[in-house]
Amino acid sequence: TMPKEPAVLRQNILDTTAAILACGIDPKKCFLFRQSLVPEHAELAWILGCLTNVPRLLRLPQWKMKRASQNNEGTVGLLTYPVLQAADILLYKSTRVPVGEDQVLHLELAQDIAQHFNKKYGEFFPVPKAILSEL
């Protein structure tokens, strides 16, 4: 949600990929890709954003905390980031999502968006459930 220097962003992508592989993710058993190369993430985020009300996003604690750290000048990207997260989850019709405690409210938003979409347009998205870890 914050602008990055292109060279730093490219290096961050490589470093993150290396870290994922170092953790033991086997590319022969899973798909590993750059989300930014899949336009459907942003496209679905736009559609879901049109179904999400602003007051709901303004109540999310992450928005309040990060906005305060940005001198109360939070960006639209920061505000709508949870909708992009919902699109990331729903695009692949995920049924279970590993999340930390700090992301439970964002997953609940994804659940609500899925239910709202399904009610309006018919059953399409599974409602994802959280996989919480004690670690």
UniProtKB/TrEMBL annotation:
In the Enzyme Commission scheme, what number(s) does this protein have?
A: 6.1.1.2
**UniProt keyword terms in alphabetical order:** Aminoacyl-tRNA synthetase, ATP-binding, Ligase, Nucleotide-binding, Protein biosynthesis
Q: One short Pfam family name for this protein?
A: tRNA-synt_1b
InterPro entries documented for this protein: aa-tRNA-synth_Ic (IPR002305), Rossmann-like_a/b/a_fold (IPR014729), Trp-tRNA-ligase (IPR002306), Trp-tRNA_synthetase (IPR050203)
GO cellular component annotations of the record: mitochondrial matrix
Q: Name one GO molecular function term.
A: ATP binding
Give the transmembrane ranges: none
Supply one GO BP term: mitochondrial tryptophanyl-tRNA aminoacylation
Q: Look up the domain of life of the source.
A: Eukaryota
Q: Which family does it belong to?
A: Belongs to the class-I aminoacyl-tRNA synthetase family.
PANTHER family found in the cross-reference section:
TRYPTOPHAN--TRNA LIGASE, MITOCHONDRIAL
Q: What is this protein called?
A: tryptophan--tRNA ligase
Species of origin reads Lanius ludovicianus
Gene coding for it? Wars2
